[in-house]
Predict the structure.
Amino acid sequence: MIWLNVVIQGVLLGGFYALFACGLSLMFGVLKVINLAHGDMAVVAAYVAVFLTPHLHIPEVWSFLVVVPLFGLIGYVVQRTLIQKSIDRDPFTTLLVTFGLSVVIENILLEAYTANGQTVNIGALITKSWHPTSIIYISYVSLAVLAAAVIVLALLQLFLSYTGTGRLIRAVADDREAAQLSGANYRHIFGVAAAIAFATVALAGIAFGMMTQFAPTSGGVNLLFAFEAVVIGGIGSLWGTLVGGVALGVAQQFGAHLNPQYQVLAGNLLFLLVLAVRPQGLFGKKTALS
Amino acid sequence: MSETLLEVRDITIHHGQLCAINDVSFRLGQGEVLAMIGANGAGKSTLLRTLAGLHRPTSGVIEYEGADIVKMSPNKRVEAGISLVPEGRRLFSSMTLEENLKVGAFRAKKGPFNIDRIYELFDWMPERRKQNVWQLSGGEQQAVAIGRALVANPQVLLLDELSLGLAPIIIERIYALVPEIVASGVSILIVEQDVAQGVAVANRVHCLLEGKTSLTGVPSDLTSEQIDRAYFGADLTTVTTESESAE
């Protein structure tokens, strides 16, 4: 029964990782850009939720209603200006630019809000949980985050499959030139993809702030876990990202159960194992049109 | 002569350091089929990519419906009515046949073509529309690529090396559609290595040799010797005639 609890906690954690990672996966799949500032954007979103939305008289628990659309807009603008400029140069420039962005963001946050830990205040909800048995407890917040992850991934999947813009995003990801020849303005499509990526990572950032403490430098380690979730699940597969996140979460919880120091180690070992045995990830595709 | 739709004047295109097209001019009239022929490396594909907006010319003018479009982006050109069926088909590999057509139709102009019309043109398509395109044969993929360009309702259709990697019977079948497409009001610029195919469907022929115009004319006025000479270059023809006379 203890192990069942470990698995359940792992799945709950995995939902968060998937929510965090899906934007990263989209940015890489469509723009071919590895956004090293992805984790920092999540942290910025959490800070906005804690420090700025109260000015709008919105309770922190509902802050995502404002912050998520705001970050979508920011994503579009940042893509059309900064990131597009670096894509136009070469792929390495995008790495440098997003890395630089990450450094700048962390330092601005340190300067403005110090290195103290913060949390998104959701009142009494944080301590509430469901106890089906004496050993298993399921936190409502974690459950809500997992549900949010599943809903976001499902909506994203529907959007990509059944809407014209969604299809253009996939078309650009498949073959940018051919998409242009079909009338797609790829820069706009890149902007839309970045908007989705930033919006989802903002949601993930607020979720992170609800579940635990965050500080200006919290982005990095979460970015690492997001990378691992994407690679384990397979690049370009949304449901793969969810499975990858859950697998990573379960592995980490198993490690933590053996010894709290083993949490990150166990996740990394799973990541390396998948890379060695199935480099394309669990749901990644090897086949491509020749 | 029919009304000019697309006019290219004194165009020079570089591919990196290499001069791919050197001072070439031609025009495409309403309802015309122009075949651009030439050997491998003559610069034909680079020329088509430039017309589609994927490549910037070094100098020269591209006029479409009387306006210079050199600076226009590829997607704007599609909206304006210029569609390219690229070399190697370039289908969206993660998508089904129908999704490929839907992407093509997303920014479509009004016109005679829609997805249903494409399904009439290629009657095998409806029952396979849910299949992923990598499950289709080369000829079928080529048909999807043509359909994807046609659903945008172009006025000018640029066809790049349709015959590449296809069996002769399939090539014939695909070229058999050209008159029907032209009848719908589409003008076509064909680039071909397969000279016989290109010449057979064209109203006019434009031959490129190492980036320069080596011959232009109406197919019925041209002898195959003239075309051969323009295709391979004069020197090679001399060698051929010499070897022929030796036999």
